[in-house]
Amino acid sequence: MGRDRSNDYVLRTGQQGAKRLRLLARVKWPTTKTLLRRVRLRPGMSCLDVGCGIGAVTLQLARRVGPTGRAVGIDRDEHCLEIARQEAGRQSVHADFRAMSVSELQEAAVYDLVYGRFLLSHLREAGQAIERMALADRPGGLVVVEDIEFAGHFSFPKCPAFDRYVSLYQQAVERKGGDANIGPRLPGLFLDAGLEQVELEVVQPTFRRGPGKRIAQVTMEHIREAVVEAGLASPGEVDAVVADLDRFARDPRTLLSLPRIFQVWGRRPHAGAPALQSEMPPQT
Description:
Elements: H1 14-38, E1 46-50, H2 56-65, E2 70-75, H3 78-91, E3 96-99, E4 111-117, H4 126-136, E5 137-149, E6 155-156, H5 160-175, H6 186-192, E7 196-203, E8 206-207, H7 215-222, H8 224-229, H9 235-250, E9 255-257, E10 260-267
Parallel strand pairs: 1-2, 1-4, 2-3, 4-5
Antiparallel strand pairs: 5-10, 6-9, 7-10, 8-9
Helix pairs in contact: 1-3, 1-7, 5-9, 7-9
């Protein structure tokens, strides 16, 4: 599905990236848990978590499908996968973690549920990724995705540093070939992939205090290299934005939201596999 290399990812990876992923997993889990209940995740199901990172959702899937089910997480970041494996061992939860990108996914008609969170917005060919996910499902299986409309962020009151962060993130992702505002496109991409019974929910966690209020500041720090490399801002400006976001977040009178998050799900038809819209280019 086009280029799928680490330098196409706007955020830090490896051990540094894992710190942000832990924070995000903590903040995002309540709405993801509600989504998984809504799509009727249950014991005995076979599940795939695409772009699993440190495996936070994969381990939750494993707990819920139980010993009669199966949970597999794939990601191209070996450092994050090792953290995921260690956490699975620490929690005594069985899950299988594999070093693989979605474009390398060759399994067909294997899973009851294929899930991905905050992956598609970083990909050059998100539609082809959804096709791969659909093909990995058994007939009647579910593809479930959460992704963002980054422009839908808000702060109260208006915060110039926050507005600058939202702008810089979108520009950095676009420079890497992604779409930070893919959320509203997702239902159409699901239909293009041949999925049926496509549904959606839009959520937007918003915070006055707590770890959720740190997401903007931490994310700005983690896109530093991509922003500076692209010439979108100087290191000094990034420092100033991070510092201003920290001050704003510390004020209990202010509000900070996450991006508008589109939760979309659909079923692979029983009649047969969705036809690929185009051939997947080989890995480079």
